[in-house]
Amino acid sequence: MTWIDAAWEDRALLKDEKYAEAIRATIAELDAGRIRIARPDDNGSWIVNESAKKAVLLYFALQANTTTTVGPFEYRDKIPLKTGLENLGVRVVPPAVCRYGAYLAPGVILMPSYVNIGAWVGEETMVDTWATVGSCAQIGRGVHLSGGVGIGGVLEPPQAAPVVIEDGVFVGSRCVVVEGVRVGREAVLGAGVVLTASTKIIDANTGQEHRGYVPARSVVIPASIPKTFGAGTFHVPCALIIGERTPATDLKTSLNLTLREYRLAV
User: Fold this and answer.
1) Torsions phi, psi for 170 (to 5 deg)
2) Cα(145)–Cα(166) distance, rounded to whole angstroms?
3) Mean pLDDT in each 10-residue stretch from start to end of the chain (266 residues)?
4) Structure pTM?
5) Residue 189, CA atoms < 13 Å, CB-side half-sphere
6) How far is CA 225 from the centre of its chain?
7) Phi-psi region of 255 (alpha: psi -120 to 50; beta: other; left: phi over 0)
């Protein structure tokens, strides 16, 4: 059992500096990107680092609220803001906020948005205006999170998988992805798609259903299906796979062609 696991079982151990230091060291490793909350394996699945998630939760117990002043803005929080942005090679547009303990890879652009502790944001990814990357969410390289997108945080239980947005995904305006849903490589979510762990993701061409996972390169739009309750039949939200992203060397060109072909709003 690691010191972090021991402290998770017995919070009184947090008073011992060696346990507290193990937690702080883990958060520093997350902040630097040397470890991450979840990582892909060779089979395309994702492995959760339970100990790192426990460290994030225990870090809140160690920290006290402090005041931070940034120009005209004042913050009061337990978690400091991420610093050293120039050395990281990222662009952060005011008043975007990234908390310490989140990793931003080179080339990331944060428009006025929010990235929470434990998150990982890959190279050349754009987090657009008022988008939110929740705690421990894993965002791949070359992803575009459009305006107002909500990527949910999954902290508890520690073994629970975070939301994963894989490389090259385009997430349209006002989409919401929560509860550990995984969006496969180079998929396209049209504006307003809401994905929870129980949302039906239906292939319009084959009828195949998925839950918690969007297949790679899928083009997805919001839809609804009828469901009968005691008071009558109502339409409940689902997501509809209407096709695949067009293969092309230039994925940006491919995306534009896809949107035109399917008349898809983003």
Assistant:
1) -110, 120
2) 12
3) 92 95 97 96 91 96 92 91 96 96 98 98 97 98 97 88 96 97 96 97 96 96 95 96 76 59 61
4) 0.92
5) 37
6) 27
7) alpha
